[in-house]
Amino acid sequence: MLKKLVILLTFIMFNAAADDGSRLWLKYDLLKDARQRDGYASLIKYISINSDSPIIATAANELQMGFEGLLGKKVSISKNASGKTGGVVLEISADGANVQSLMDDGFAITAQKGNILISAKTPSGVLYGAFELLRNIQTGKSLSNLAFTSNPKVKIRMLNHWDNANGTVERGYAGSSMWKWTELPFRIDPRYIQYARANASIGINAASINNVNASSRFLTAEYLEKIGAVADVLRPYGIRVFISVNFRSPRTLGGLDTSDPLDSNVRKWWNDKTKEIHKYVPDFGGFLVKANSEGEPGPQDYGRTHADGANMLSEAMRPYKGVVIWRAFVYKADPNGDRFKEAYDQFKPLDGTFDPKVIVQVKNGPIDFMPREPFHPMFGAFPKTTLGMEFQITQEYLGQSTHLTYLAPMFKECLDSDTYAKGKGSTVAKVIDGSLESHQNSLMAGVANTGSDANWTGHPFNQANWYAFGRLAWDYTLSSEQIAIEWIAMTMTKNKIAQDKIRTMMMQSLPIYVSYTYPLGTAHMMGEGHHYGPEPWLAKSGRPDWTSVYYHRADSVGLGFDRTGKVSNALSLYKPEVQRQWGNADECSLDYLLWFHHVPWTKKLSTGRTLWEELCVRYYDGVEQVKKMQVAWESMKSEIDKETFENVEGRLKIQKKEALWWRDACVLYFNTYSKMLIPSPLVPPTRTLDEVKKLVEIYHLR
Ligand code: GCW
Predict the structure, then answer these.
(1) Catalytic residue among 294, 555, 634, 646
(2) CA 229 to CA 181: how far, in whole Å?
(3) Is the minimum distance from the CB of 43 to ligand 1 under 6 angstroms?
(4) Which residue among 170, 342, 528 has the greatest number of ligand 1 atoms within 8 angstroms of its CB, and so is best to mutate?
(5) Do 430 and 318 sit in the same domain of this protein?
(6) Most buried residue, 120, 379, 500, 558, by most Cβ within 10 Å?
(7) What's the pLDDT at 184?
(8) Which residue ranges of the chain lie beneath pLDDT 50?
């Protein structure tokens, strides 16, 4: 009897195994509704392929695995079996009717002659179509009368890993690096394959595998062999590998006495090195370069320009398909300047001088991935240069791995912004997809949030940001809500009521985070170095533009950085329509107000409250909203996997504690300038500013 009980308990324990999140949105658990399952199964009896491409094999195997999990049915794969009905037919076709409107990676899914036909011009297109079909089943969509075509908006859809050779990850909050450099090339961690599947499932087709603060080590033969092994794993998933390079490599690695981009020996060194890279990685994606930024070497060290540097590398890449991605994240330390304008000013004279193979990668905003930034003024102002987008998926300034913040609305806010470069409708999205100025290349990059944590991203909800990035790089017209709905259904729960509640939480999460950290267009007030928690009083740092006071400019009169003609005039970098949108403090959206104006504490805003009152209300409201998120989450306990539930529950507790920390720090600190009462019915913080300042030490962040 006892033995039977033990067996039963063991059975229950193993079958109710908690979900560690490692399967991401590709869970493929058996659909609970038998009728629905049978409905799908009746349409899917076999998988047919018409090619030996390894990518097609990936697609067929993925479908087979997905059908087995979701439908509980083993479906065979056979070659050229499309004559029968009831098949999922994967078809590469150069010119069939289905593929006529398709770009290279695009696909069509159609119901034809009793089969589900996935057609594309390229193997990658078929792979993306296969994942789309699986997503349809995972999210419970009907498969009858399928007639669906999809093309990616952007050609290079890329993750940038800021991973170091020693296993650390710059701004990584999910454990250490997922790349095991000491084991490569001999041992291939199975997680590389899971990573590749996850990326392919959302259309990501490129990855730069090392930190942009790059070590030359990655260009040694030893490391190139390791990188080659990674590329071999990613290739069948349609993903190309890029390498971040250190501009000084000809000196540090090649033994030359200069890295001057106009020096013939330096150019030869890069040409030879690029050739060598292609021996290990024949489909090498290209170089990613951070130069003359935050102490990194670059062409300016030799009196040369960014274009000189980038064009030297593109010359080396000329015989090959890949590109050169040159980052525009540059800024000089000038206490009297405005960092907002730096990249624009340095790059503007170079528009038209970059080789067509060069893509200049621009962060979404002019400062640095702040929770809310106006779109970067370079977008729309560089007609002759291919500009790519750099978003940050890892949440350096957005609560890292402990605050729930769904970033799709932030990505969208930037992409949908109108630059007015060629009149109304010249959105940032149209700049970076190349359509506005008819550029051949296009790029959307996201700084990855993946690490060695079992669930890849630390906070379970951070997975949604990886997912949303990929989906938007494929199609930025998708709504944030739609993407959240998909992700929740595949990842979190099948219960409709819980799905709605989670969607609401996700959609509100960014505005909530902004309320208790950076309301009304404030920026850059986080703890020094680690960038976690509040430190609005930070006045001394290695550089003036690494302090907080440089940005918020609080004084006895008011708060905010005047970027109108009266002070920095950064607004003048935008087109007149955009200047009008933000240039007048009475009309500027409150979300952006303090980005552009120094506003008196006593000024009445459109809400009817003074600036000081509005600031307090937002900080306090942010905290209250976090409490509401906690209540909402608790109400879903029975519908969420236990491990995931408790994981999020714990992180929400941290978020509440730290929202209070932000609120008290900022309200108490700004109060020393405004000298106004915290408006009732808000209750003043129970701790003093000095006590809050000490928290930085208590949190061991220094
Ligand atoms: O946001 C800042 C980060 C640095 C980063 C840099 C960059 C890779 O604090 O850690 O360095 O931006 O984007 O180059």
Answers:
(1) 294
(2) 11
(3) no
(4) 170
(5) yes
(6) 120
(7) 98
(8) 6-16
CA dist., res. 314 & res. 292, Å (int):
18
Q: Give the structural domain span for 114.
A: 2-150
Q: Is residue 593 domain-resident?
A: no
One domain, residues 98 and 43: yes
The pLDDT tens digits of the residues spanning 27-63 come to: 999 999 999 999 999 999 999 999 999 999 999 999 9
pLDDT at position 3: 56
Residues facing 242 on adjacent strands = 208, 286
According to DSSP, the β-strands at 46-49 and 87-92 are parallel
Per the structure, how many domains does the chain have? 3
| CATH number assigned to the domain comprising residue 71 | 3.30.379.10
- pLDDT of amino acid 80: 85
How many whole angstroms separate alpha carbon 236 and alpha carbon 241? 12
pTM above 0.85, yes or no: yes
How confident is the model over 79-101, as pLDDT tens digits? 988 678 899 999 998 888 888 99
The CATH number that applies at residue 251 is: 3.20.20.80
User: Is the CB of residue 326 below 6 angstroms from any atom belonging to ligand 1?
Assistant: no
- Among 150, 181, 215, the domain boundary falls at 150
Cα 450 to ligand 1 centre (Å): 16
To the query of whether residue 396 is one of the catalytic residues in this protein, the response is yes
213 CB within 6 A, ligand 1: yes
- Separation CA 542–CA 528 (nearest Å): 10
Looking at the fold, whether 167 and 30 belong to one and the same domain comes out as no
In a domain, 452, yes or no: yes
Cβ–ligand 1 contact at 291 (below 6 Å) = no
3-state secondary structure 65-129: HHHHHHHCCCCEEEECCCCCCCEEEEEECCCCHHHCCCCCCCEEEEEECCEEEEEECCHHHHHHH
CA-closest residue to ligand 1 atom 13: 329
Q: Is 568 inside a domain boundary?
A: no
Question: What is the pLDDT, as a whole number, of residue 13?
Answer: 45
The reply to whether 508 falls in a domain is no
237 lines ligand 1 (CB under 6 A): no
Question: Closest ligand 1 atom, CA of 368?
Answer: 1
Q: Is the CB of 397 under 6 A from ligand 1?
A: no
Owner of token pair 């985070």: 513
Active site residue 368: yes
Both 236 and 89 in one domain: the answer is: no
| pLDDT for res 11 | 41
d(CA 282, CA 293): 30
Specify the residue with its C-alpha closest to ligand 1, atom 12. 368
The answer on 191 and 113 residing in a single domain is: no
Whether 260 is catalytic: no
Atom of ligand 1 nearest to the CA of 296: 14
Look at residue 700 in the predicted model and tell me its pLDDT: 58
